[in-house]
Structure formats: structure tokens, C-alpha cells
Design brief:
Blueprint: E1 16-18, H1 19-26, H2 30-39, E2 46-47, E3 50-54, H3 55-69, E4 77-80, E5 85-88, E6 93-104, E7 107-115, E8 122-128, H4 129-137, E9 155-160
Antiparallel strand pairs: 1-3, 2-3, 4-5, 6-7, 6-9, 7-8
Helix pairs in contact: 1-2
Amino acid sequence: MTKKKITGRSIRKNRMYSVKDAARVVGVKPRTVNRWTRMGLRTRGRYQRSHIIAGSDLKEFLRTRHRANKVTLMPFQMLCMKCKKARRCKDDIADAAVKNKLVSPSVYHVLISAHCEKCGTKMYRRSSTDEILKWYNSGILDKRNKKRLLFQPNTIIKVQFAHFMEETDE
């Protein structure tokens, strides 16, 4: 079962919600909202045996919860969904598929795919042709890639990352 992404778009800041109403608006069960109150969601009192939650507090709680789960990636890293960590590509090699969709004039979307160095799971990362050229110019990509960096729509390019030593958290 996949996790549902919880957003606060339908929450009204100036409205007060009961646990049941907050759960309905966010799209979760009432016991999830009760668990959030134990985790730090601020309540404004009780009414008929239910917590009263301000919409602004609920929005802020979901925003900080989302920020806490974000992972910042270095250019040579991708997020491995199995390891749940930022990982390097296996052998520092990735495939960059140039899509036919323009970000801006002459800048295309690129989908980078590679295998995790630890578990071998396939990883993906979205980028653009501009970002890849910046990586090349700053030395993140191996200089042997120069001949391959001719970006044509609907093509796949093999990309070799330069080998960097970075700190590991294990």
C-alpha cells in the first residue's frame, strides 16, 4: 500500500476544526489527527469530548512535518526509496533521458536513472539540461562526458560522475 501525500490545501486558516472535521478535510482517519495532537499539534480546547484545532495550527503542523521529511541531495546523489537515504549511483554511472518537454527555450527536462550503490535498487531524479551543463562545468561530471553532452529530445545519454569522497552517516 502506498502512502498518501497529505497536503493542507483544503484547510481554511481562520476556521476551527473538530478532530473529525480536521480528519475529513486532510483525508486521514480521526485517530491520525489524535496521534498528531500527541505529537505536538496545538489544540485550542475541547468541545463535546473532542479537541478543537485551529486551521492555521493544522496547516503549520503539516508544513513543518513535511519539511522535516525532506532530503537535500548533492548533484551526484539520488534518493533510494528502499534505503530511504541519499545515495550515490553504482559505479558513478547514470542514464540521462532527455525528454521532449521544454523547461524554457532550448532547455529540456531530463530524467536521470541509476542503481543504488548499496542495495542495487533503481533510483530516479528529475533535472534539466541546464543543470547537467552546470554540473559538467563545475567538475561534478567526469570531463570524458564532453562528447556525449549533445542534448537532443528523446535520447538517452550515459553520464559518468567524477569520483568524490563524501562523508557517510553509517
